Each structure stands twice: as C-alpha cells, then as structure tokens.
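RECORD TYPE: inverse folding
INPUT: structure tokens
STRUCTURE:
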C-alpha cells in the first residue's frame, strides 16, 4: 500500500513539473490528470500528513455532547497535499470552503456522529469528496470518437453553408 501512495505521488509530481505550452502538452496533462483521478481512492489520502484533534460538539445528543470530545477536526497543510495532486486541481482545492488561507491548510470538521471514530471517518470522506469534486470540475472529460465525429460534421456543415451562431 505504501508503494501505491509513493507511485501516486510520483505521477502527480511529474504532472506538476510540466509547463504546458502547446495544445498537445495540455491534452497530455489532461489525460494524465484523468488517469490520476480514475485511480484515486481512499487509500491514496495522505493520512500520515493529517492532524486530527477532538473537541466538544454541539447540537443534538443530550449530555453526551457536553461531556465527550466527539467532534473531529482534520487539519492538512497544503504543502503536504498539493505535491500529490495534479496542478489542475490546485485552484479548486484552494477555493473550497475548507481552505484556511492564513495557515494555508485544509480544516475539515465533523460532529454528526456520537463516536469519535465515525467523525474521523466522516472527515476523511469529506477530504476525498473535496479532491474528487475538484478533479471533476477541473479536468475535462475525454471526448468520445462519436462526439468528435459529430462536431466535425457540424463544423463542415457550417463552413459549407455559411451558417454562423
């Protein structure tokens, strides 16, 4: 499992080093980022870099919330996360509501459960969802051959008959 994470980070690091200057480079970065996103899963989260703390929760739960530190707070410095994700996702991650600009960290909290372990799992699930959402909104989908052919025909039609918007 540790080798998978190292390979994962190496792939992301290679993506970060590239400075796309041509359409082919941009498409290659998009394709590599798509592959990265497709292989991303819970085992790829940088759990060793996360700091977990517990505090008293609020809301429903009766006396339990007043006496037990069940609220989980996950802190992940971006200097630990960003090298392991493609550059295309960086802006989306920084735009998330979990981003604390002053400390340059992601701060994710969960207090929906009465058990600490469930709240920690919820924090990691939110982190995974954040990365997947950032990837889906930043990385263009691959154009199917059918769609490419359809667009080509539309361009040819508009050129042939002088059709504009």
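DESIGNED SEQUENCE:
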């Amino acid at each position: 499992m540790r080798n998978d994470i190292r390979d994962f980070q190496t792939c992301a690091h290679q993506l970060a080093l590239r400075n796309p200057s041509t359409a082919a480079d941009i498409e290659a970065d998009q394709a590599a980022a798509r592959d990265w996103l497709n292989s991303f899963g819970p085992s790829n989260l940088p759990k060793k870099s996360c700091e977990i703390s517990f505090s008293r929760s609020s809301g429903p739960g009766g006396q339990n919330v007043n006496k037990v530190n069940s609220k989980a707070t996950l802190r992940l410095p971006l200097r630990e996360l960003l090298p392991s994700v493609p550059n295309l996702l960086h802006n989306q991650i920084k735009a998330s509501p979990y981003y604390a600009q002053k400390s340059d960290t992601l701060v994710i909290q969960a207090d929906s459960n009465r058990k600490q372990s469930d709240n920690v799992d919820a924090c990691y699930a939110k982190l995974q969802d954040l990365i997947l959402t950032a990837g889906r909104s930043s990385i263009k989908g691959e154009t199917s051959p059918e769609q490419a052919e359809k667009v080509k025909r539309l361009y040819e039609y508009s050129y042939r008959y002088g059709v504009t918007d």
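NOTES: The CA atoms of residues 71 and 111 lie 4 Å apart.
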